[in-house]
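Service request form, structural biology core

Requester: graduate student, group of Dr. S.
Request type: structure prediction, single chain
Budget code: on file
Notes: please return the result as structure tokens.

Sequence provided:
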Amino acid sequence: MNAPLFKFGLFNFDVSLIIAFIIGIVFGFALERGGFGNARILAAQFYFSNMRVLKVMFTAIVTAMLGIYYLSVIGFMDLSLVYISETYIVPQVVGGLILGFGFIIGGYCPGTSVVSFATGRLDGLMFLLGVMAGIFVFGEMFPLIENFYYSTNMGSLTLPKFFDMSYGLVVFFVVIMALGAFAAAEWAEKKFADRNPENSL
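Core staff response, request fulfilled:
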């Protein structure tokens, strides 16, 4: 086994932060080049008229999943050493809904708002300021909601563990699901093309 590289001591914590920073810059550049710094493009997915976000993110998920799976199959990566955050199902569902509403209203998620701001968009700046204000409010309220925040702990849960299936079979089903989602996205874009917010430019 050779990976995860950090867990096998190929570099220390300080170097890992530098690597993470570089990966973040490259990821942000890729998002910007993909048009994800434009709120109109991002909001179009909620009108089913431009499903670029679904296509790109699903492609990234499937690519990463296939890569990690085959690296484990050939013995290069030890999956037991890959960090997985614990699942707190109810608070995470509530948080996801709040994030989703913010995404619909503002046209950005936290990551894309940074990309937008980096390219000089004022709406990205306003959204980013809102994110920081939300973080501050959450921090101040945390003692009041701490019990809820740590409720319904399901441990470090994965799809293979949850469905009691092999990793390979889960990967297969996710790939099939992605292909179905891509086909549905293509159909939706043709069906709802007249709803595209970009047409109002």
